[in-house]
Structures are given as C-alpha cells and as structure tokens.
Amino acid sequence: MKAMKIFLKANCIFSKIFCAVFFSILISCAQKNSPEQIPIATEEIVNLEKNNSAFEWFCLTRDGFEKIERPQKTPAVIKKPWTEALRISYMAQAAENSPLDVDANSAPKVFALVNRLGVIALGAEENKIFKDDSIFANRSAEKIVFMNGTPVISVYKNSFFNEKISAHEMFRPFLVQLAQDSGVFFPILTYENLALDEKTQVNDFCWNGAQWFCSTKSSDENETKFEYLKFRPETTLLSILPEQNFISIEESDEDEFRAQRRPQKFSYAPDRVKELLENLPADFNFYAECKIASGPTPHEYLRGKVSSGAMRKATVQISDTWIAALFEDGTIFLNGALYGKKILNGGKSIALRLPKLPSGYIYSDFGISGTQFFAAWEESEFFKTGRAGFIKVNLEKILY
Predict the structure, then answer these.
(1) How far apart are CA 252 and CA 132, in angstroms?
(2) Rounded Cα–Cα distance for residues 308 and 119 (Å)
C-alpha cells in the first residue's frame, strides 16, 4: 500500500489524540473557563435556566448513570485523556421512519455512546443502558453510524496510551452492532478481516453510505507510518460474522481519504442548516458537524477562516421533521416540528439556552427523542476529561 512515513525524533510524539487536540484548538475556543455565550439578543432567547422544573441532571457512573443535583455536585474523578475517560464520546439520532430504533408507540431514540462503558439508549419514555465489558472496558468507543437503521459502533485502542495493546490479543473488534432486542453487542468486523497486523490501528474512518474509508497507523521506536484502505462489503455488512471475510479491500491514499473527511465551506451546507443558523452575526466564525438521523459519518462545514480567529464548534442533528444545533456554551437553535407535535414558531428558528455550566465544563453533543432533549456535558481541560454526564430537558413544558 502507498504509505506516508513520518520519522519521529525522540521528543516528538505524533498520535491521533494530539492531532485531534491541535485541530480542536484551531476551531474552538480553547479556554480555561467555560466558552463565552453565543452573541444573540437576549430577548430572542428562551432561557431554560429560569424553568428548573423542566430539566434534570445526570452523571455517568461505572454502572451507567444516576440523577444528580447539578454537575459540580458530581463526585470528583481523576481527569484522563478523552480516549481513556468515562464520557459520552458521541450521540446519534435515530430517524422517525426507522422501526428498528423505535419502541412500540414511542418516539425515535437517541443513542449515547459512553466511552469505556457501552451505549445508553435515551428515549421519550425511558433510558436504558447496554454494557459489554469484553468490548468496551479496555477500548475507546469513537462514534456511531447507522446501517439499515441499526447502530454500528467503532472501537479502538489508542496506541500512545496503550503501548502494549495488541501483542497477545486474540480478538480485535473494529465495528460492533447493537441488537436492542437482546441487549447484546455483536462484533461484525475485526482487524483480522481488514488484514491488519497487531501493530496497526485504525485511527480514523469514514462511512459515506456506500463505501468505507480507513486511515491506519503503525509505529515502532523509529517511525510512524500511515496507510489508507477502502472497502465495500460484498454482502450486507450486518450479516457478516467475524470469522467470515466477505469484504473486498482496496488500497487508497491520503488524498482520497482526506477528500472524504475534509470540512467544506459553509456555503455548501444543506439549505436547512444555513437557514437554521442564518441569524448569527456575519463575522461569527464556527465549525458545524452535521449528522443525519440514522445516517452515515457526519459532514463538516466551516464558516470563516481558522486564521481569522477562534472558531466555535456546533453539533447539528438533521431529523425528518426538525433540525437543531448545539454550541458548547449551551446555545441551541431549533427549527421544525418535534415528533408528533405541531411546527414551532410558525416555521421560524427558535434560540434556547441550556443552564450555564460551571467554569471548565462544556456541552458536547445532543439528541432529541419526542419532546425530550438530551445534551452531553463534561468537565474539560485541554485533552483531558473529568466528570461527565447529560442533561434531560422537557421541551414540551417550554415550547408547547
């Protein structure tokens, strides 16, 4: 395979986590305190903090989650690099027309991927934890994509923090599906299926709905090597067993991989996204990670230039009847109709603000099930994470 080789000096560390940190610093407000609030006129915002009966706080625990009074009341934990910490690493929104993700007579779910633990299925009626220590306890959980309405999870081990990760591992899963009816996680693709040896890790991937693209990394004392591959399952990926290998792997290269992952200009974003955020000041720079309900890997869009100043990060969820964006300070933009409800505000976007977090905390991701809004929060310090959890907001009490 074509490879990009990087020769490292003894004091030079190049790993996925530090690349991600560097990019995050460029596109977000890397501050010691909480992010500054998004510049919107006060009279245009619905402040949720004024209605404390409409929301509940939860913290993550080794057994799942528990209700708390507020984030700063959570027992202190040792801060760890985010790949190793107990935190919500990703939230994925189920689509309204995806029956596999919807309980009978209930709204689509939100899937919160909890690093080092499993998945919390957040619903309008109940929240349920799915755990599997054999898969998650010693691996980092990265993201969720959907295939035919089924959540598929990627797991890996960060080679910088786990130098001896795979010398004797007999089984190394890469993609895992969650069977909600049984609560069991099924590995569907392993490193062995991808013909990767024990020194190689998948450090990034993209699923565009038709084909998979992977960036792999292997290291020794003298060099770090990156290679790229792509594959398209010859049968339905969800039907593949790890001991089978019904995939056709091809060589790829850095340019092809980056073309899949490179953020685009905001002018290329879907019209619904541009309309949702059109009231932000023209000189306000931000980076939007746009997820489609029950969809593949998110698309990313930049408004402004990184060189022109700090960029704020927004997570956007695009569902069938609504679209919403969440910034790290807790500012929400919402447009459309929530599940089973009428259109909000005559079709115009609504701005809301979640309760202000303590200094050093951020909101990171979100999803909506019915009229219940869920947002992940965490204590963040550079590349380390401390306490973490989520907030549940009853939007019906506030908006209807």
Answers:
(1) 33
(2) 38
DSSP per position, 3-28 = EEEEEPPTT----HHHHHHHHHHHHS
What order of strands is seen across the sheet that includes strand 140-147? 140-147, 150-156, 173-179, 184-190
Whether the Cβ atoms of residue 94 and residue 145 lie closer than 8 Å to each other: no
Q: What residues contact 302, with CB distance under 8 A and at least 6 apart?
A: 27, 263, 264, 265, 266, 285, 286, 287, 288, 311
d(CA 326, CA 366): 7
**Over the stretch 365-393, which tens digit does the pLDDT of each residue have?**
999 999 999 999 999 998 899 999 999 99
| Coil, strand or helix at 125 | coil
Q: Which of 36-40, 167-171, 317-321 has the lowest mean pLDDT?
A: 167-171
The DSSP secondary-structure symbol of 50 reads: G
What is the C-alpha to C-alpha distance for residues 396 and 196, in angstroms, rounded to an integer? 49
DSSP 8-state symbol, 235? S
Neighbours of 170 (CB within 10 A): 6
Tokens of 259: 């073309």
Q: Are 289 and 303 in contact (CB under 8 A)?
A: no
SS3 of 139-195: the string is CEEEEEEEECCEEEEEEECCCCCCCCCCCCCCCCEEEEEEECCCCEEEEEEECCCCC
Determine the 3-state secondary structure of 347 from DSSP.
helix
Please give the Cα distance from 266 to 125 (Å, whole number).
36
Task: Provide the pLDDT for residue 100.
Answer: 46
Cα(247)–Cα(250) distance, integer angstroms: 10
**Confidence band (pLDDT; 50, 70, 90) for 71?**
very high
Nearest residue to 120 via CA among 58, 206, 78: 58
